[in-house]
């Protein structure tokens, strides 16, 4: 797909084709994250750093399930 880079006020913006916005399930005002990859940049509607933190939390909760259950009493 092709996107257009344009000047928006004092900033530079990228205009995404409607099909891309629909596929990413994003709308005007949503925040996108740019992640540097070996082949360039990836654009995602979620924070990859937060996703990593949540995965670490899930693993910890799974490992200490019984202790967390007892603490919740």
From TrEMBL:
Cited Pfam families: MazE_antitoxin
Segments forming domain SpoVT-AbrB: 6-51
Bilayer-crossing regions: none
InterPro entries: Doc_partner (IPR013432), SpoVT-AbrB_dom (IPR007159), SpoVT-AbrB_sf (IPR037914)
Domain of life: Bacteria
Example GO molecular function: DNA binding
Identification of the protein by name: Transcriptional regulator/antitoxin, MazE
Organism: Prosthecochloris aestuarii (strain DSM 271 / SK 413)
